[in-house]
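User: Quick one: structure for sequence A, then sequence B.

Assistant: Sequence A:
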Amino acid sequence: MTAPSAGGPAAARHARTGALESHLRARRDSGHKLLVPYVTGGMGDDWIEAVHAVAESGADALEIGIPFSDPMIDGPVVQEASLRALQRGTTPTSVLDALARADLAVPLCVMTYYNIVFRAGLRRFARSVADAGVAGAIIPDLPLEEAGEWCVEADDAGVATVLLVAPTTPPARARSICDRSRGFVYGVGVMGVTGERATLASSAGDVAKMLRPLTDRPVCIGIGVSTPDQAARACADADGVVVGSAIVRRLLDGAGPAGAGEFVASLRAGIDAAP
């Protein structure tokens, strides 16, 4: 992996330290609920246009998937998007190169798996992410106990490591995860892989309520949030939501950037209309 050509120097990396968290804190503290849409990088010729569309439709930050061949937390929809991306020749470098040129107004966070990070080299990957102007990284198969070396490199590069807390996580461990997480704390709304659900699981509210007294960092609930109504209900207990499969499915079905943007706008409207 080589650093993206459009990125900044080391000084710019460090200037971005905390950019994701400070932005989300400011939005939350001004009374807004947070919306973090997800798009799989490289899934189609117009994927970067889809990223712009969702960013401009009410997103507070964006999560961009770097496709991997064996994604342990991704359900069928995101797996299909990743497969299409890989078949098109998408690589971590090509995703970061595109993001470096995207000139988006909201912070970016990449999501990928530790195999990719380890193969690239932890320092090299962290600095490539930062040089692309990306403010955070989610590595769902890297547990807290084994994340130390990565976190050191990510911190040094100015990349926020967003950690996940599941509904079954004991409160003491959840507190440790919150203490080490940067950017925001990702509350897993339901046990299982990503995917659309007909109803919002009660565990989404449970994990948000568990996390609320453990941290002052923004808490966003993801996995199983699929509709504007579900997003609004999840935000009743959390600071915001991450929505992925429902957006990616629309892109896979041919809705294009405009359709993805319209759906994200409906999520924004549903969240903002909630009491």
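Sequence B:
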Amino acid sequence: MKVLFIGDVVGKPGMELVSKLVFRYKRDNEYDLICINGENSAGGFGITKKGALKLKRYGCDVITTGNHIIDRKEELEGVFMIENVIRPMNYEPSFPGKGWTVVKKDGMECAIVNLQGTVFMPDEPKSTSPFTVISENLEEIQDMTPIIIVDMHAEATAEKIAMRYFLDGKVSALIGTHTHVQTADESITEKGTAYITDVGMTGPFDSIIGMHPQPIISKFLGNTNEQFKLAKKDVRMNAVAFEINDKTGRATSIRRIQIAEDT
């Protein structure tokens, strides 16, 4: 199974680039499965039902999310009614949506799991330990398919690396999201798990993680009244492509991708 996992899409600039590139990938049958983190697809903050449907129409098979979905509370029920749009598994049970899904592609079944870290993360949405929750659910998922991809949405590098060791050989891939900065540590573990600490973002790179620099700098200087504004220039897509043996569930390759808007 050939999989493309696209980093956190940020606002209209990121959405437009995704629409162009994913269309091309689908047309050319480059990947069996395309996943994307969509938690910042709505203007850089949250996700809407309309935006999620667009990502599906562009060709994204699975949409994972994270803490910023709370920025569009009024959209949550509608968003998570859409097939294969998931939220972190370790959110409290009353939160809308579900934390994992199984997709069938060309006769192969693949499970995608969404987790959220707890270190340096906001108090809302409320979450419990991702280590405990995945432990409680992993056997059920493994009974369905050996191909398991995990989006670990977390701030702390150490927490993501700890999860890599915790799930080593138990899942096919562990892909870090949230920081919007692509790391250079992609690897295949000895037990066959593809890993990267953060896949990066898809959006405007002439920015501070997708936003105009000045309001963020102003906030660091103590001005808390300025609102963040979505940047627009130097749009790029960060992603990782990896291959998984569909019989064993072991990953066999992983590579980082960065594509500019005019490529």
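The CA atoms of residues 35 and 118 lie 23 Å apart. The mean pLDDT is 97.

User: Thanks, that's what I needed.
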